[in-house]
Amino acid sequence: MVTPWDYRTGVSYFLRTQADYSEYFQIQKFMRGQDRAWKPYLAAILGLDHEAVSLKYSVEDQIGELTAERDKRLAEIDPKDQDRGELSTRIEIARDEISEIDGKLDGFDFHEVELQINKRVVDDVEASITEIGEELYDLDVDIAQLERSIKSGIKFDMRRIQQIYSEALIVLPDALVRNYEELIEFNQKLTTERNRALRKRIQELKARRDTLSEEHRKKSDERQRLMSIVQQADTFRKYKALQAEQSQRRARLTFLETQLARVDAVADIERSLRDLRGRKDIATSAIERSLERGSPVQTAVTRYFNRFVKLILGINGEFIVSGNSNGNLEFEIRTKDVVGTDTSQDQGHSYHRLLCALFDLSVLRALDRTPFYHFVYHDGIFEGLDNRVKLRLLDLIHEIVAERRIQYIFSIIDADLPRNPETQEQIRFSPEEVVLTLNDQGDSGRLFKMAPF
Fold first, then answer.
1. pTM of the predicted model as reported, rounded to 2 decimal places
2. CB neighbours of 229 closer than 8 A, spacing ≥ 6?
């Protein structure tokens, strides 16, 4: 068997029902799964580096999960706080200010504290209010310009042009009229799309204006609150107000420390992602080297498949294993005529089913002297085939079975039996070749000898 997979994983490949012919390599059992459900197994059968294939898929899963986690954590960080060095400096300054102000408050020395508040009002709050006010002004200007642009339509009056021509005693050609009218219609369509885009932009600008207006209000309230502290004459009330301000400083410090922890968590994830990308590159390189080396089994399957396709259909059959742009394995089957041109025979359902069967036989034939599966079942394999193709396929099956290393099982209805080319009579199998005969003439002809339920 194929390590590390169990017997049940692989046996499905060699029990092809009608539902298993839609894809050459991905049988119905794995149809709902992704490539990682079957490509490593097929690589192992062919003697390629299946461990590298499995590892790459596993690492890609981990990269996807960590990337999603990183993006989630990044969304929790204020864009202004994503620079760790700057954030650490702000935290240290905040801690130092809190410690210094605590000492001043304990000694009822408000002078330095008031100076700091004045400096904060000037350097931070007033600057923010000015900056927000300038942006609000720009937004109002932009919104007004866009709204005026929507109101101005196409200034093109066809009737006025015709009147001018008429007054000049010149007949306006019909063709020219049609061309102008088509131009107007085209411009109207462009204007409709343009106005739709402009309205959307206006909505975005208004939403931004609302956000800034609220921020402007908060900054103005903060300025008023800070100035009231400085202007407070009652010592006890000033002390209580300064304590409240100190509590806000501590809250801002806690916020900054939380942001720093989030930044560090993102940095840890980035380091893990770099490590995983390195492991992915190593696995990709291993897959590439495996493809370059090939394997005796892959070579044998390639040769047997082409030999069987040429014997049955008279064309070349190519089994191709390559790497795609993502570094993963791709398995492909192509058919070519004698001059090397691609054929469309594999696009028909009957011949697609036949190529599936020939690929299965190629794999079994390449591994018939190893501890592998030594049987295959194909449901309805002769259905819809040309009689000459049926006869050649039957000859191939007899040839393979005669070597007594592979057991071939197929189901067939009476109407699909190959016919003798000379007498046109159906070819009959010997009793030793027939495992079971079913019919619709009562319960005795059913598989379980009982009425359907």
1. 0.63
2. 114, 117, 238, 241, 242, 245
